[in-house]
């Protein structure tokens, strides 16, 4: 009997449209001879499943849909929501209460890793990789507090929503006058803001995945090289083509191995599940690797980083998503 898969996409954040693109990519790669796949769109104004062009309601009490008079219960939720509520543990807790398996990290790991201000001290405490100095803000600082922050962290600094993705509302601040406006912009996206020390270097990403049999796969690393005047991997660089993403990265074997081994350690110590991507900066001058963040639901559009890394290993997107489903069902 074919299993019922809920492909959950959309979300409440500025990454909604990116999630829809990722969801459509996954939908086209799943084996529809094995699975009944339902596109479930989660939005603040309501949840619905796409029945062709029609929007049909989702019963959130049981997470079921009515398909031509038949109540459909789901064997698995394939979560492809970037940001709230898919990447921060909210949906994971909901599915845990309903007893529905899902393809991502659990609620606790998701919540911890999504909030960078909480995750960074935990990763620093592991002692396996350096973490840039930062300050977590819950309210707009006054002028004196701004001056004190910049004195401690120096310029430039990064200002970003503490719980967010795709570099939405993220600013590289190079002079003091731009600091407070950047903080205000980040607060419009989130209730907490992270001010982070700038580390000059090369950016590398690495995907990790645990198969149903327990084998850990670590993917070839990618170097992110912003182009077109972009100084870092911001929203436009990510999604409007202003970056070169070189996979496998053109770097020394020792650096590639360090990125991969660090990613494996963090995957294990953070209790990750599913497809996860780790981001780093390598300080070339000091030859030191710095942790940036964890992406527990990395992009899955055709040009996203993890699918490229998988292809470099000889794994097609269809094979990757099938492995993800099998691992979740075996959990």
Q: What would you report as the Rg, rounded to the nearest angstrom?
A: 20 Å
Provide the CATH superfamily of the largest domain. ATP-grasp fold, B domain
The SSE order reads EHEEEEEEHEHHEEHEEHEEEEHEHEEHH
The structural domain count equals 3
Secondary structure class reads alpha+beta
Query: What proportion strand?
Result: 25-35%
Model description:
The protein has 10 helices and 19 strands. It is an alpha+beta fold. It has 3 domains: 3-102, 3-Layer(aba) Sandwich (Rossmann fold), CATH 3.40.50.20; 111-130 and 200-330, D-amino Acid Aminotransferase, Chain A, domain 1; 134-197, Dna Ligase, domain 1 (2-Layer Sandwich). Helix 1 links the parallel strand 1 (3-10) and strand 2. Mean pLDDT is 92; it is low at 232-240.
Chain-wise SSE layout:
Layout: E1 3-10, H1 16-29, E2 35-43, E3 46-51, E4 54-59, E5 64-67, E6 70-73, E7 76-79, H2 90-98, E8 101-102, H3 107-114, H4 116-126, E9 130-131, E10 134-137, H5 143-153, E11 157-161, E12 171-173, H6 179-187, E13 193-197, E14 202-210, E15 216-218, E16 222-226, H7 235-239, E17 243-246, H8 253-269, E18 276-283, E19 288-295, H9 305-312, H10 317-330
Parallel strand pairs: 1-2, 1-7, 7-8, 9-19
Antiparallel strand pairs: 2-3, 3-4, 4-5, 5-6, 10-13, 11-12, 11-13, 14-15, 14-16, 14-18, 16-17, 18-19
List keywords for this structure.
eight-stranded mixed sheet, seven-stranded mixed sheet, globular, 32% helix, 331 residues, Dna Ligase, domain 1, D-amino Acid Aminotransferase, Chain A, domain 1, 30% strand, Rossmann fold
């Amino acid at each position: 009997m074919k299993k019922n898969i809920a492909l959950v996409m959309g979300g409440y954040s500025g990454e909604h449209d990116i999630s829809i693109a990722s969801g459509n990519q996954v939908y086209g790669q799943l084996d529809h001879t094995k699975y009944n796949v339902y596109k479930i769109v989660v939005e603040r104004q309501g949840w619905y499943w796409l029945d062709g062009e029609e929007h049909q309601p989702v019963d959130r009490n049981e997470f079921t849909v009515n398909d031509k008079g038949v109540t459909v219960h789901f064997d698995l939720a394939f979560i492809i929501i970037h940001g709230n509520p898919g990447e921060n543990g909210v949906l994971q807790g909901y599915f845990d209460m309903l007893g529905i398996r899902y393809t991502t990290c659990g609620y606790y790991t998701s919540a911890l890793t999504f909030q960078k201000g909480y995750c960074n001290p935990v990763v620093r405490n592991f002692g396996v990789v350096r973490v840039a100095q930062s300050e977590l803000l819950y309210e707009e600082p006054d002028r004196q507090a701004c001056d004190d922050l910049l004195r401690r962290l120096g310029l430039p600094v990064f200002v970003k929503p503490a719980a967010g993705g795709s570099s939405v509302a993220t600013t590289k601040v190079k002079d003091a006058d731009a600091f407070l406006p950047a903080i205000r912009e980040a607060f419009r996206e989130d209730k907490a803001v992270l001010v982070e020390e700038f580390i000059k270097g090369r950016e590398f990403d690495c995907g990790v995945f645990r198969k149903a049999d327990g084998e850990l796969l670590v993917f070839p690393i990618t170097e992110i090289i912003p182009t077109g005047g972009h100084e870092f991997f911001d929203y436009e660089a990510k999604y409007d083509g202003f970056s070169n993403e070189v996979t496998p990265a053109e770097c020394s074997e020792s650096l590639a191995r360090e990125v991969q081994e660090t990613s494996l350690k963090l995957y294990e110590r953070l209790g990750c599940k599913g497809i996860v991507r780790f981001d780093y900066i390598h300080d070339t001058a000091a030859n030191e690797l710095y942790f940036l963040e964890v992406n527990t639901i990395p992009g899955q559009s055709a040009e996203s980083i993890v699918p490229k890394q998988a292809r470099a290993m000889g794994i097609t997107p269809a094979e990757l998503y099938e492995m993800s489903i099998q691992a979740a069902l075996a959990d």
